[in-house]
Amino acid sequence: MTRILRAKLFNSTTTNPQPRRLQQVSPDMLDLVNRSCLITGGSKGIGLAIAARFARAGATCTLIARHERPLRDAISVLAESGQQDHRFLVGDVGDKGLWEQAIKMNPGIDILVNSAGQSQTSLLLRTPIQEIDDVIRANLLGTIYGTKFYLKEMTRARRGCIINISSVLATTGGAGSSVYAASKSGLHGFVKSIAKEASRFNVRINNILPGYIETEMTAVIRSSTKAETLPNPPLGRFGTADEIADAAYYLATNDYVTGIDLIVDGGYAIR
């Protein structure tokens, strides 16, 4: 039996602003005006960076995450773009009931970003069964569910863009990340297949494969790993969430790209 978390829809006028300055853009960069976006995992990290990037380009964003307070704070950040109609939905992407609620409240989106995810920081033999289920549920099933629900609407409209946040570990693997890597690897075949199914309806779908990015998720890795054994990409640093947001913006605005795995990892995969 699945447990459906509270599903609430709010707009930015209902929040208590906690400002964080957004980068200003020129009017000629507002090429997502009148576009509606839904971003899972949008309350922090990569998801929030993508939402902020899209909002600066003129898009209206709906954010999904499991906890209300971080979502309220995120909406306050997006409100700095000048728009006041950003919204959020509270729930678990692994529950199909959340998606049923989302599609009723916000059926006509142009861009879906599946960014919600859960990490793994232990060897498989030490990983509890429940954690295995949770990782697969958040990283793979949630993306499949969201894509299934919104793909139907996009094919009817004969336009749409879906962006999944995968991981470079989908291609390299990593000790202590077996389940996480497996969940992200599943997105490779999924995107290739959906790209073939949906292209005739002018719907595009792509993966972004980030390397190690400065987020709360990788902060766990830093705190539990000795400095000399931390991942060291050829470019010599962890990436930023804004750099992944730039990749998402590229995929959202280039109408001739579909079915790809876009690696943004500072060269980690070529080591």
UniProtKB/TrEMBL annotation:
GO molecular function: oxidoreductase activity, acting on the CH-OH group of donors, NAD or NADP as acceptor; quinone binding
Any one GO BP annotation for this protein: fatty acid biosynthetic process
Annotated InterPro entries: KR_dom, NAD(P)-bd_dom_sf, Sc_DH/Rdtase_CS, SDR_fam
Domain Ketoreductase: 35-211
Alphabetically ordered keywords of this record: NADP, Oxidoreductase
Pfam family, one: adh_short
Family indicated by similarity: Belongs to the short-chain dehydrogenases/reductases (SDR) family.
Name of the protein in question: Ketoreductase domain-containing protein
Species per Swiss-Prot/TrEMBL record: Orbilia oligospora (Nematode-trapping fungus)
